[in-house]
Amino acid sequence: MPTGTSVIADEKEYDFIARLSNTALFTEDYDWHGIDFTKGSKIAPFTSVVDVFGDGAVWAVSTPGHTKGHTSYLLNTTQGIKFVVGDASHFGYAYDNNYAPAALSGELRQQAAETLASIKTFASQHPDIKLIFGHQLP
């Protein structure tokens, strides 16, 4: 990504990515914006959702499991609402067959399964929202 690119993610992801890349990936080259989900709102079935810009256009949704700070995003677009679930579900096939993503611990695997169930509940309650999976083109 070009220098100065804004990165908006759960504060927990900063440490994870820095350890993964063995560097302070976001300190100099990127415009890092950590989301503090402890200050978010509960929007069932999700425990924490944050209005990123304060205008209702982009909502960050805490979806832990694949990583501790995995974040998905609800986008209000001119073509309708899109839910970018990222690696909370890599592909439509995994989503349709209840395959939660890989995780680094038993606790995270449990969270990944719970997150996938929450996404499926949310999608069934809002069938007009388009899901976008992490490794599948929309």
Automatic annotation (TrEMBL):
Its cofactor is Zn(2+). Keywords: Hydrolase, Metal-binding, Zinc. InterPro entries: MBL_superfamily_lactonases, RibonucZ/Hydroxyglut_hydro. It comes from the Bacteria. The keyword Secreted does not apply. Belongs to the metallo-beta-lactamase superfamily. This is Beta-lactamase-like. It comes from Vibrio variabilis.
